[in-house]
Amino acid sequence: MSRRLTLYRRSINLPVSQAEAFAWHARPGALERLMPPWEKARVVSATGGIEPGAEVLLALQQGPLTLRWRAEHTALQPPDFFQDVQKSGPFAAWTHTHRFEAVGATSRLHDEVEYAVPGGRLGAWVAGGMVRRRLDAMFRYRQATTAADLAMHAVHAAAPRLRVLVTGASGLVGRAVVGALTTGGHTVVAAVRGEGPVRWSVEAGLLDDPGPVDAVVHLAGESLAQRWTPARKAELRRSRVDGTRALVASLRAFGRRPAVFLSASAVGWYDDLGDVPQDEDAPRAPAGFRADLVADWEAEAAQADADRVVHLRLGVVVSPRGGMLQRVLPVFRLGLGGPVGSGRQYVPWIGLDDVVALVVRILQEPGWQGPVNAVAPEAVTSRAFARALGRVLRRPAVLPAPAPALRLVFGEMADALLLAGARVVPARALAMGHGFRHPRLEDALRHGLGR
Q1: How crowded is residue 366: how many other Cβ atoms within 10 Å of its Cβ?
Q2: DSSP secondary structure letter of residue 240
Q3: Residues 85 and 195 reside in one and the same domain
Q4: What's the alpha-carbon Rg for the chain, to the nearest Å?
Q5: Do 239 and 348 fall within a single domain?
Q6: In this structure, how many other beta carbons lie within 10 angstroms of the beta carbon of residue 421?
Q7: 170 and 140 part of one domain
Q8: What is the DSSP letter of 267?
Q9: Are residues 59 and 201 in the same domain?
Q10: Could you give the CA distance from residue 164 to residue 364 in angstroms, rounded to a whole number?
Q11: Which pairing describes strands 205-206 and 198-201: parallel, antiparallel, or unpaired?
């Protein structure tokens, strides 16, 4: 008996030619850039790109269950279309055709999916509406990301493609940066611990010569968001301060001098001054573990033998794939979330895609140097952050996390990261004319959560 198929179609105008839009999808990293961050999915294996016969196996977490989705690319006609078909997975049938239409010097992308849910007509009656809503959210995210990434790369389309060494490539920010660079035609050399073409360690830096590199993006380092025991503090300094020193020394030993050395840093540089805005020229906070760590970290990066050194002072990166948002989502989804402590302290935040856009631009434009605050223009307090997340999730967000309880659980880290904050502003980015994709918190949350 033949299945009854449903056709889903969504289209968007793209700011580049048909050929370039097709090429973006064919490059490594496209799957990373297109995977909705709210979906609990990971790539188990991938063979090839989008050519016929290439396969991708995904693991999808649905509550307590893990589903496997195996898709095979079956048709390809550059630059007009390519197609993938579900070989096994959650749908009774699934064929996705990516069509690219020339519109003068620009183009239009059409995503067309023919699918059937399991269970025939009964399955369609029970789950059809939910599936349609999930497809809307998924393709709205995919197409918005495609258009924004293509516009980002089009600004520097005439510039040479770069060869970029990236540490911390498997982390939250690292995966997104690598995907954005490779889809833009750049070459990424990932420095990884253990086995790999270019190995590195915190103690020794690079163990293998990475070859000539135009830029270095140094993102490796242990997370600050954990209880600061003496052993943990030592590990944080080792991974960030000692690791940066070792990387800089090994690059020099191999005779590799990049044009730009971009090193992750943190807004922990700044003191809690209440409503007082603080830009990149603001003095560092008084002595303390957090401020000392950031200052020493940046001092080591400043020793890099490069034309430019940039310290990317990251705020709270907003993404359900990791960081603070991933940790608090389960509580907020239950309607038990709320502000931290008094709720009056500021939360310097930035959307993950805006971090990516800043990194890509900094690598290609010589005007960026020194500290750069990677935070969104909209300043929000902990109370405002909780209210925005509650609105997006359609849940109450009024139950505060009391300061004594946080200190009991997290110790010194609670006062340094959770109960204090600084009103950090992205003065340098705005002065450079940088446009943020998601300058408002609620828009960033809706984009990242598919709402």
Answers
A1: 10
A2: I
A3: no
A4: 23
A5: yes
A6: 26
A7: no
A8: G
A9: no
A10: 11
A11: antiparallel
Q: The domain that contains 207 carries what CATH number?
A: 3.40.50.720
**102 within 8 A of 93, measured Cβ to Cβ:** no
Distances (CA, A) of 239 to 24, 68, 201, 223: 34, 35, 9, 10
Do 96 and 171 reside in the same domain of the chain? no
Which residue do the tokens 């605050």 mark? 373
Residue 1 lies in a domain: no
Residue 213's identity, in one-letter code, is: V
CA quadruple 266, 268, 271, 275: dihedral sign = positive
Q: Are 264 and 221 in contact (CB under 8 A)?
A: yes
Last residue of a domain, which of 154, 176, 203? 154
Cβ atoms 60, 66 nearer than 8 A: yes
Residues 418, 362, 147, 350, Cα dihedral to 10°: 10
In the structure encoding, which two tokens stand for residue 157, read together?
């389309």
Query: What are the residue ranges of helices labelled H in 46-199?
Result: 120-154, 172-183
What is the total count of domains within the chain? 2
What distance in Å separates the CA atoms of residue 21 and residue 370, rounded to the nearest whole number? Answer: 34
Residue 400's nearest CA partner among 347, 345, 340, 344 is 340
Distance CA 188, CA 365 (A): 18
415: its two tokens: 């006062």
> What stretch of H or E contains 377?
none
Residues 6+ apart with CB under 8 A from 447: 141, 144, 351, 353, 438
Task: Give the whole-angstrom CA distance, residue 283 versus residue 415.
Answer: 20
In which residue are the tokens 């954990």 written?
A: 226
Tens digits of pLDDT across the chain (451 residues) = 456 889 999 999 999 999 999 999 999 999 999 999 998 888 888 888 899 999 999 998 877 888 899 999 999 999 999 999 999 999 999 999 999 999 999 999 999 999 998 887 777 787 778 889 999 999 999 999 999 999 999 999 999 999 999 999 989 999 999 999 999 999 999 999 887 889 999 999 999 999 999 999 999 988 887 788 899 989 999 999 999 999 999 999 999 999 999 999 999 999 999 999 999 999 999 988 999 999 999 999 999 999 999 999 999 999 999 888 988 899 999 999 899 888 999 999 999 999 999 999 999 999 999 999 999 999 999 999 999 999 999 999 988 888 887 787 777 777 777 778 899 999 999 999 999 999 999 999 999 999 9
Q: For residue 216, list its beta bridge partners.
A: 165, 261
DSSP code per residue over 322-368: SHHHHHHHHHHHTT----BTTS-SB--EEEHHHHHHHHHHHHH-TT-
Tokens in use for 328? Answer: 């608090």
* Structural domain span for residue 171: 163-449
Rounded CA separation 148/131 (Å) = 26
User: Residue ranges of the alpha helices (H) in 199-255?
Assistant: 230-237, 243-253
